[in-house]
Amino acid sequence: MPVHTIPDGWVLETAHTAYAFGLNPAGLLTHRYWGVRLPYPDDYPPAPAPMNWASFNNPSHLTPEEYPGTNDIKFVEPCLKVTFADGTRDTVLRFDSAEIDGENLRIHLRDAFYPLNVTLHYRVHAERDLIERYAVFVNTGDQPITIERAFSAQWHLPIGDHYRLSHLSGRWFDEFNIQREPLVQGVKVLESRRITTGHHHAPFFAVDRGHADEESGEVWFGTLVWSGNWKIAAEVTDFASTRINIGLNDWDFAWRLNPGESFTAPASLAGYVQNGFGAASRTLHDYVRERLPHGDALHKVLYNSWEATFFDVDVNSQTKFAEIAAGLGVELFVMDDGWFHGRDHDRAGLGDWWPDAKKFPNGLSPLVKRVNELGMDFGLWVEPEMVNPDSDLYRQHPDWVIHFANRERTEGRNQLILNLARADVQDYLIDHLDTILSENNIAFIKWDMNRNVSEPGWPSYEGEQREIWVRYVEGVYRVWGTLAARHPKVIWQSCSGGGGRADYGILRLADQIWISDNTGGTARLGIQEGFSQLFPANTMEAWVTDMEKHLSLTFRFHVSMCGSLGIGANLTHWNERERNEARRWIAVYKEIRPIIQQGDQYRLHSAQFGEGRTAVQYVSKDQRESVLFAFRTHVPDPAQPFTVRLRGLNPQARYTVEGFDGARSGLAWMNTDLLMPLLNFDSTLRRIRQVEG
Ligand code: GLA
Questions:
Q1: In sequence order, what are the residues at sequence separation of 6 or more whose Cβ sits closer than 8 angstroms to the Cβ of residue 118?
Q2: In angstroms, rounded to a whole number, what is the distance separating the alpha carbons of residues 557 and 577?
Q3: Nearest Cα residue to 233 out of 119, 160, 155
Q4: The pLDDT of residue 693
């Protein structure tokens, strides 16, 4: 049973981990344990008794509460903050009851006086070694309650303050930089205020004791299943209690909870491993792959001409690209921006989702038909949430955008954001996109979002204006979810000027993420490594392009083969030698993609911390096959040898490793330093195969 009761509490057990909490002698719901699974129920420590220190530090300030309210003489980060109808801004949550239902535990809390119920939901993903938490707020009274903070969880680390936080930061064109920094007394905030997930931080944390690496060390890690404003507040209290708060961003947030209504905060997922950051990532990868709309279905090799042609697309030129791409072995041809009404540049067209009559006089069908005849699937780019002021849609509905009544509407890339919190906007988008999907044989949609919010107003809404942050995201989910349900075979990709909307919420709708507009091979090595902390390789589309052209085509292919391979170069410029080489790599990729897309990933040498030496290995789940990619981007003087040790092999089984003589046991290979004879800007791909007997 994944959920047990223990004296004065509960324990949630996964295959290897356990998470325990209960009521302390003062009746507060208190964290007890999070770590390796223990053999006996009595092994889990009791809830710590309330301590009395001084009048400045009340017992509740010193108690690691599971879901602290805003009350008492307490100054730790609370999980919720509400204002009741009479103006009271204090929440005293008392335990009411608990329900166990298979892998679920629900803890019902009630305010001591006011008509607010809060249910903490816990779900155990036992085989995946993850725990999911979220909270539901219910107004049981007859007057509205305003919610001003509604976190999903507070995750407690074992008492102590020598922890280190790893997180992902960046910016457009430079996403997913791994940051590792000590957590010290105070609050470290990571967040998005951009109405979407953001390039600048990913909703991800990994906490260790300061010396974990890819292979070893305890790591507590987690994320949030949400695609809008989010916040992580990692706090070390003045009494060395370390906790990670995660949930909706409370910045500018308010929600009016009317009588009888409920509000559900998004889920947070978290886990614990004893063997380093690599194991944390693999745990998350397995979880994600199982839940993608199309599971771990293999992704096709794609071509997209965006970087080659920008807006200059029409039926003839796209057909030409399609013919060349098909000859290389490409399986999915995607037409990017530029195909719809009036879209000759980025100053016009967004919102008018029908084919441009000049470029596609007979609609999209002739191109789609030709692409299908060539044996490829057809895919299309859209950016549904946006509108250019120069569009028919905006001329008809200027009030449909997010704005404040008496403020100028700030444009980003010449566009404004449609207010997807509005049902009429949602319905418009559903209708128009459904028409495109119904009239054409479309297998893939790249859903883009190319700016962040400004003037976050909704003048016509009679409710609480600040609900827009959540209602917008729910609107995106509704439009996308409705279309996905009507067209279940379509593979969707989440793009937001690269990796601006990469999160576990969007991966309930999208199978893939466009992780960066930076497709340069050396830059990508680092961006891909950062992305892999949280996301598996099958969700990562990676193109070979003409960026960083000084790199060999082989190098560029190897980089992109580490994910779901695509090509974005100008194929008309490739000579016969280059096309032959591409053909060869695409064929190799098709052979090894099950290992990459469905296997376990090991980061052997870090691109971000690795002195110009990067190595990534993928191992099939049955450990019969593996593939190693190694890259060198800087040769220090005097040259350092570049060696790798393989990982993830069956120690007893025997393997061959391409480029090395003989068949040896997995244990032997994993304990031998293999020399990679790489020059600068050089790369290699080695296949590793189990041999019989
Ligand atoms: C964004 C995307 C690109 C491309 C352009 C089109 O920048 O990230 O891949 O689709 O939009 O305008």
A1: 67, 80, 93, 108, 109, 110, 111, 135, 136, 137, 138
A2: 15
A3: 155
A4: 65
Q: How far apart are CA 235 and CA 615, in angstroms?
A: 34
CB neighbours of residue 139 within 10 Å: 24
183 and 78 share one domain: yes
CATH number where 504 lies = 3.20.20.70
Q: How far is the CA of 310 from the centre of ligand 1 (A)?
A: 9
Q: Which atom of ligand 1 is nearest to the CA of 381?
A: 10
- 125 domain-assigned: yes
Domain membership of residue 659 as a residue range: 603-691
Tell me if 341 sits within 8 A of 349, measured CB to CB: yes
pTM given for the model: 0.98
Task: Give the pLDDT confidence score for residue 635 in this predicted structure.
Answer: 78
677 in the same domain as 562: no
CA geometry: angle at 482 spanning 439 and 434, to 5°? 15
Give residue 87's region: left, alpha or beta (phi > 0; psi -120 to 50). Answer: left
Residues of the chain with pLDDT under 70: 637-638, 693
Q: Which two tokens stand for residue 380?
A: 């299309």
Q: By alpha-carbon position, which residue is closest to atom 3 of ligand 1? A: 497
pLDDT for 634 equals 85
Q: Are residues 248 and 308 in the same domain?
A: no
- Provide CB contacts within 8 A for 589, sequence distance 6+: 301, 557, 561, 565
Q: Which of 172, 450, 524 to mutate to test the pocket of ligand 1 (most atoms within 8 A of CB)?
A: 450
365: three-class secondary structure by DSSP: helix
Residue 103 shares a structural domain with residue 76: yes
| Residue-wise pLDDT tens digits, 37-66 | 999 989 999 988 877 778 888 898 999 999
Candidates 346, 351, 431, 357; CA nearest to 391 is: 351
Residue 372, domain member (yes or no)? yes
Give Cβ neighbours of residue 325 (< 8 Å, ≥ 6 apart).
303, 333, 376, 567, 571
Kindly report the CATH number assigned to the domain that includes residue 643.
2.60.40.1180
User: Which of the listed residues 336, 382, 449 should we mutate to test ligand 1's pocket, taking the one with most ligand atoms within 8 A of CB?
Assistant: 336
